[in-house]
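Shipment paperwork, digital attachment
Item: protein structure file
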Amino acid sequence: MTKTNWKKSEIKYRLARAGWPYMQDVDRRFGLPINTTANATHRPEPRGERVIADLLQVPAHVIWPSRYDATGNSTSLNLLPVIHQLRCAVTVKN
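Attachment content:
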């Protein structure tokens, strides 16, 4: 089985049918920075993914199967400790 994410147009269509025609309205309503949900349609954005999945009443791993493992855990979150370590390793010299 291939891991094909839903297209942005499909997500926008389903959000509109659920009463959310504008993604910026979703961001505002849920206190997210503007474009969080729009960004989630094409790159990993855990907060936006969660809100979209909740509004559509579809698990996030169904909408974005390439971003989740077989147990439904986000694979993009696994990079956060690595990124944090890299940022901490950088030192600024005067």
